[in-house]
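Tutorial, part two.
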Amino acid sequence: MQTPSRMRWWQWLLLLAALALFAAQAGWSSTLKSAAFDEQYHLAAGYSYLRTGDFRLATNHPPLAGLIAALPLLGDDTITLPTDHPSWAAGDRFLFSDIFVWESGNDAQAMLLRARWMVTLLGVLLVSAIFFAARQMMGARAAWLALLLAVFEPNLIAHSRFVTTDLALSLFTLLAVWWWWRWLVQARWHNVLLAGIFAGLAMGTKYNGALVWAVIGLALLIQPTVPGGANWRQRWLGLGAALLAATGVIWALFRFSVGPVTFLPAWLPLPAPHFWQWFWNTVFRILDLQGARVDFFLGEASNRYWWNYFFVAAGVKLPLVELLLALTGFALLARNRTLRRLCVLWLLPALLLLLGMTEVLNIGFRHMLAGIPFVLLLGGYVAEAMPWLYARPWRTVTVSALLGVILVADTARIAPHYESYFNQLAGPWQNWSNILVDSNLDWGQDLIALRQVMDEKGIESINLAYFGKA
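Running the prediction step on this input gives:
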């Protein structure tokens, strides 16, 4: 574990300025975006949970992300929650969210903007976590480079202003893995308990948050033991403690309910049965949909899967500087024989790429969002492994300024449409829809921009093929 010197006052100011800049990009662009397709479902599930304590709409996803986003709406007596509509009794999250957001007299855009600020706050916390994780794992130089990459990362900015699950999952996954790494190198029980709590929050955000346990388990096996760190006996005990802590978080999220599930005998109830039943249902629904869902990739619409989907998606959706630095960082880890010591930096991106080679996740680059913080950490390692870049103050200033200019220019060219970012390998924007579509490009979020164009050109009505309700 690195023990860099304490940060000076001007470094704290620089960090706060960077976080403010990230928040400003997300907050400003949020006001220019209509509802993305998935937002209404998460907002309805989260707000109804807060108002009624009922989690019946938390089916496709657990309610935590929507619950956090809906917090600013509490206490607003002007918001109508139509629990008298038949869709509520039926637990139909699709129809109920339509009624709640669009057909109950609520100001949909105002509700979304307030809810999005909570997601932006989670985004700021994620960027902070990237900085401090890099600082502790690798050193101060790595932290500042990772911070620079994160502040202008278009995918993180985009999903820091949508009421969806991907940003929150990225935050809690990073925190869980970071604190598990702390446990492995410094065997203090609060480290392992916090790792378990954050892993529970990841699972309470999205069912595929369970992937964090694959990272934790592999790190347990791969990470070499160090003096003062967890020995093999402590590692297995720590894993059990983390699992118990995560189970407690999920149980609390579902109001300490206990009951039967269909995949176990009725005499064997589980805590939080709603969660585990829908976790089970979701896994088997994904498996059942294999070959039944039509997807689009590289100009082809098909119900077959593409093993290289995420490789291509990462190649065109990540900024080139970020991608090159991450690959260089991985190569330097191998050269310096630190792949095992810092295995937590590359395990999740590797697992996501491997999972993407199956038929399970060929449905959008956002499903790799949780891997991006680790890509940024890998990029940050370059600064620590190549100290000659920063051996003299003028080199530090020159390299930082050059990287900053490149990142700012690259992000500015797509602003405020960060979710539609493609790098230079994808060619001109006219070509992007031939590579990837759906949430990679158009998630239904640009009705406001369409209205502005129509007003500017004096167009009163159009025929629009629109995927959404807004």
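The first strand starts at residue 258 and ends at 259. In part three we will examine how such features are distributed along the chain.
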